[in-house]
Amino acid sequence: MSQTQTARLMDGAALARRILEETSGRAAEIARRAGVTPCLATVLVGEDPASVTYVRMKRARCAKAGIDSRLVRLPATITTAELVATLRSLSQDAAVHGILLQHPVGSHIDEREAFEAIAPEKDVDGVTMSSFGSMSFGRPGFASCTPGGIMRLLDAYDVDLVGRRAVVVGRSAILGKPVGMLLLARDATVTYCHSRTTDLAAAVREADVLVAAVGRPRLVRGEDVKPGAVVIDAGYNQGNVGDVDFDTARTRARLITPVPGGVGPMTIAVLLEQTVDAASVQLGLAGP
Ligand SMILES: Nc1nc(=O)c2c([nH]1)NC[C@@H]1CN(c3ccc(C(=O)N[C@@H](CCC(=O)O)C(=O)O)cc3)C=[N+]21
């Protein structure tokens, strides 16, 4: 028998558009009621071309949604202490409702220490330990944006998670680790794989829901995807290629995210939505 079955695509671009339309309406409503426009501050350290592009995309999306964005550009040579001071001052600036420190920063900087200088109520990118803890325990707080976007996508396509085997490839602080916690909170049976995992293929073959989040082009082989699985490719690599061998994976999966047009746009939609959530709490228009 020939393999002619093709997975349904999970259209993150379309879902992100819907979220951004609603977010844009809420931003306008806040401006009308409070006389203040929600504002996201983006901190960019150095000139890494990929980071410059991502930050530009985020700011363009803010402009379109009626959210102010403030860009703080810092030289690559900045120290941890200087970066922390910048983030503390943004945390205290009443005109700023959300703060995003673009990852990665240079290796001479303690990125964790920098993230922790972001006030939790402004951590719309969900990178602080406080946000991670709240998110893991199902308490109010901001989800890390890509993990939050992945869960929205799974829900939009009615993916049942209870008792299912979810395999997360990658354990980064703002992607792999938190998405595993969100899946666990929804009663999936979660396995984390990473660079020290001895048999990645064996784990992938068991996955009902696979989340690839390492940033290694086509690390996950399509032939290892379990027939009928849901495949979320959150890998961002140069040249818009994901972590999953898409062409083969789509002949086996039931649902799969494309790259581009899958997880990427959802990340930005959640960031902007959480910025509006933060503004509305800070301006006294909603409970926390
Ligand atoms: N503190 C922090 N938070 C982040 O959320 C964060 C970060 N640092 N550092 C870098 C990664 C990467 N990231 C992406 C966002 C959108 C797309 C996206 O929209 N991509 C489009 C394609 C874009 C293109 O055409 O180049 C898509 O997949 O359709 C991709 C990647 C957020 N990140």
TrEMBL record:
Q: What is its EC number?
A: 1.5.1.5, 3.5.4.9
List ligand-binding residues for NADP(+): 170-172
Q: In which pathway does it act?
A: One-carbon metabolism; tetrahydrofolate interconversion
Enumerate the spans annotated as Tetrahydrofolate dehydrogenase/cyclohydrolase catalytic domain.
Answer: 10-125
InterPro entries, sorted: Aminoacid_DH-like_N_sf, NAD(P)-bd_dom_sf, THF_DH/CycHdrlase, THF_DH/CycHdrlase_cat_dom, THF_DH/CycHdrlase_CS, THF_DH/CycHdrlase_NAD-bd_dom
Complex formation: Homodimer.
> Know the name of this protein?
Bifunctional protein FolD
Q: Which gene encodes it?
A: folD
